[in-house]
């Protein structure tokens, strides 16, 4: 059996009698406030190292190597990285810090090891005139790329 009772809406105590409630889509509708998103930690922008920056870095590092005590067993001391940053900033008007220098050194070491392996691989050599790695055998390059591709495809 169906009930003949009429359902009354719940009383809204926050609304005055005679006022209308605006609905989404109507001109008077104002969306509820959205809670503020928490701020994400700021990400450091990457420093792009130009040729002049690299030249200054290498000059300062070569000076520091000639000094006694500027190197540790596994690299340079913190004040050496700061000296490079100070020189780059002073000469080029930039805002490089010691962490940028340390990161660049880490990248250069990785690139050096890759180039050394390539130079020492069969079918490759060194051109002393142009100071570049040369590929004497085209098949050696294809084999090298195949090995590198297989390494990276299994890591992803």
Automatic annotation (TrEMBL):
Pfam families: Myb_DNA-bind_3 (PF12776). Residues 48-144 form the Myb/SANT-like domain. InterPro entries: Myb/SANT-like_dom (IPR024752). It comes from the Eukaryota. Residues 1-35 are annotated as: Disordered. Coiled coil: none annotated. This is Myb/SANT-like domain-containing protein. It comes from Thalictrum thalictroides. The lineage of its organism: Eukaryota, Viridiplantae, Streptophyta, Embryophyta, Tracheophyta.
């Amino acid at each position: 059996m169906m009930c003949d009772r009429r359902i009354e809406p719940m009383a809204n105590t926050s609304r005055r009698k005679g006022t209308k409630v605006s609905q989404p889509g109507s001109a008077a509708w104002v969306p509820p406030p959205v809670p503020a998103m928490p701020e994400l930690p700021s990400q450091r922008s990457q420093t792009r190292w130009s040729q002049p920056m690299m030249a200054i870095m290498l000059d300062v590092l070569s000076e520091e190597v000639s000094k006694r005590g500027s190197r540790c067993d596994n690299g340079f001391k913190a004040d050496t990285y700061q000296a490079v940053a100070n020189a780059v900033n002073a000469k080029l008007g930039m805002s490089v810090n010691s962490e940028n220098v340390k990161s660049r050194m880490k990248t250069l070491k990785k690139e050096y090891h890759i180039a050394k392996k390539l130079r020492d691989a069969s079918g490759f050599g060194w051109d002393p005139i142009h100071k570049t790695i040369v590929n004497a055998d085209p098949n050696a390059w294809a084999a090298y790329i195949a090995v590198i591709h297989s390494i990276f495809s299994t890591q992803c």
